[in-house]
Amino acid sequence: MLFDPKKIRNIAIIAHVDHGKTTLVDHMLKQAGTFRDNEHVDERLMDSMDLEKERGITIAAKNASFMYKDHKINIVDTPGHSDFGGEVERILNMVDGAMLLVDASEGPLPQTRFVLKKALEQNIKVIVCINKIDRPDARIQEVLNEIFDLMIDLDATEEQTDFKPVFAIAREGMATADPAVKTSGLEILYERIINEFPSPKIVEGQPLQLMVSNISYNSFVGRLAIGRVVSGQVKVGDEILCMQDKGVNKKVKVSALFQYRVNQQVPVQEIGAGDIAIIAGLEDFNIGDTITSAADPRPLPRIRVEEPTVGMIFSVNDGPFGGKDGKNVTSRKILERLERELLHNVAIRVEKTATNESFKVVGRGELQLAVLIEQMRREGYELCVSKPQVIFKEIDGKRKEPFELATVDIEDAYTGVVTEKMGLRKGVMTNMNNKGSGRTRLEFRIPSRGLIGYRSEFLTDTRGTGLLNTQFDGWDDYRGEISARNTGAMISDRQGLATAYAIWNLQERGKMFVHHGQDVYNGMIVGEHAKENDLEVNITREKKLTNVRASGSDEAIRLVPVKPLTLEQAMEWIKDTELIEVTPAHIRLRCRGLDPHERNRNNKMRDDE
Ligand SMILES: Nc1nc2c(ncn2[C@@H]2O[C@H](COP(=O)(O)OP(=O)(O)OP(=O)(O)O)[C@@H](O)[C@H]2O)c(=O)[nH]1
Ligand SMILES: [Mg+2]
What we know:
By secondary structure, this protein is α+β, with helices and mostly antiparallel strands. Among the domains are: 5-196, 3-Layer(aba) Sandwich (Rossmann fold), CATH 3.40.50.300; 209-293, Elongation Factor Tu (Ef-tu), domain 3, CATH 2.40.30; 409-471, Alpha-Beta Plaits. The strands form 6 sheets. Strands 19, 20, 21, 22, 23, 29, 31, 33, 34, 35 and 36 form an 11-stranded mixed beta sheet that branches. The longest helix has 14 residues, at 140-153. It is globular. Mean pLDDT is 90; it is low at 604-609. Bound molecules: guanosine-5'-triphosphate and magnesium ion.
């Protein structure tokens, strides 16, 4: 359907992680009367992927659309976690306005800075919304000042810094111009969206141009390209040209068209300039491609996103249990899956390695890679992955490494220990702000390398009360060695079943990873040795039976309960010489080389050092 572009608003919701974007979008859709009164609507409707529901975070940007009065509002919910920053960067291409949400207590955090910077760079109109004003620790005026300072810091124009904030309690679906006055809905937010965000800019009299900014899939028609129609219009049956990277052009016919109604894709016959189109018919395309008229093709400039900073080696599971519970286990299957990921994940790259059995996957952060591995696991893949490694660069003959801006928010009592640990990891404090409420905010600039494996230690050090946020902050001189884990591994020296008796004997020497009755193999890591060196152990040992009963009662076997390691815990724990074996049913740790002779050689080398 052709819609008057003046009545269209294309907007994105951007913020730091957990500041309430998805919750706000929920209420915006509901209050716009998009559901029947008795219709069941899931909470955080837009977080539709399984992993999003489980983790309570948004991973992929998603479109929706609703009507407010006679206006059509196309809205994109974006992820706030910095590892998924690439999603935000490409989405800003599709919109003319961005609603910046800021938590009334936490204030602007690293990802707030990142998304605001990207929006300002693209000259997108920003409306500031202070959310969660119901929090007992809300500090609205201070947060407003902090946002102002951030804008100045990012070289915002006078017009941009002269913002008029909205205040909200997204969870209650309420927005207000005055935090002291409660309202009963989001009226003011809708009004500001249609009055302050511009209608889409349209180049008149030009043929069809659309940049693919998002990708979706429909089991009837296949892969779908999503983007804003910059000029012209598109109809079912049209001949279009998909202009790809490196000058590759493909001519195809539009087989179907869809538009969003709330979060559903509904078929339409034609879509005009300014609106968001979902196009079927092209199988092979990528984010950043231009879809344009076949008769008069005109490419749009490609989007560039920030470079990846962390990589992991993904390889075939060549352990003795390989193929036991996965259905996709060959290197060919793994490569196919990774190539499929590249089609919609702009922030990930796959590089070949010296062998055909492994690939280097690079991305924005450990969480992004962990999510990919977790998805593959659920799809029946088996693989081994290495410890995450940062990517080094050579600039003017000097070795450079990625840095992060780490913001920690902790109880005053923990500033000592956190500062010390950050220092060991080559972090330099750049800011300290005692909020006077018993909590302190510290900022560090630290090599990304130093942060790998630090999160769980940070949580332990702050008794689970600390908040740690990081944001990529450019490349800088290599800062030298950073010491790794200072404990060894307990390595099973044979295949068999772990016994309670053996675990009971070993558990005082460290932390166990396996439980009684679990299958183990030669070279599998069954526990953490509290000392620095690795320890070869027989975890299958049975208690010797004797004819003579001991005079007293046998010592009771009390086992410390073992929680299976999660993928992320495993990623934090392992060293370069170790691997994580990932299968649909198990996360195991193992030595890189399973040959015991080789292992002994390596151990000797370590002892000599
Ligand atoms: N107190 C309070 N909590 C809120 C409010 N809005 C959202 N929350 C809570 O904040 C948490 C995060 O909300 P989400 O909507 O998932 O946040 P998000 O910004 O979409 O998070 P990501 O997509 O992962 O970046 C949830 O537990 C919400 O219930 C609010 O106005 N007040
Ligand atoms: Mg969300």
